[in-house]
Design a protein that fits this description.
4 helices, single chain, alpha+beta, globular, 134 residues
Length: 134
């Protein structure tokens, strides 16, 4: 484990917190900040269930970034076209992205895991354990 990364475990979940530096030549823009990934074993493979980007520019979270079966049907007015699973944080409403992420993990994680397509892991999540590592 490098000093720029820490892991915390709560039941079946592992929270991976790391500093990331995005290169504008590789990514769509240069950026830096903290990523928080909620991981668990899915069919014998460590899988990211939900990811939070708490960066200077990119403030977002993504449901099921590795779940290829996850599809969200859009509203009827858009022809039910699939929606993205990436959502932007609003600094005006949400405030500091790290603080918002920790608060959200401590109160809504099971619902987020269900939304990400992992209902069994959501059911096995003990929020008291999660809150003790946040």
């Amino acid at each position: 484990m490098t000093p720029a990364m820490q892991k915390f475990t709560a039941g079946p979940l592992t929270f991976v917190v790391r500093h990331e530096l995005w290169d504008g030549n590789i990514h769509d823009h240069a950026d830096q900040g903290v990523s928080i990934e909620v991981k668990a074993q899915v069919v014998g493979k460590e899988t990211t269930l939900v990811r939070f980007n708490c960066f200077d520019i990119e403030k977002s979270y993504e449901y099921g970034p590795e779940n290829i079966e996850l599809s969200v049907e859009g509203p009827e007015m858009l022809g039910r076209a699939p929606l993205t699973n990436l959502y932007r944080m609003d600094a005006t409403v949400d405030g500091n992205p790290i603080g918002w992420t920790i608060k959200t993990l401590g109160t809504k994680l099971p619902k987020m895991l269900q939304r990400a397509g992992y209902p069994a892991i959501a059911a096995a999540t003990a929020m008291a354990e999660v809150q003790s590592v946040l």
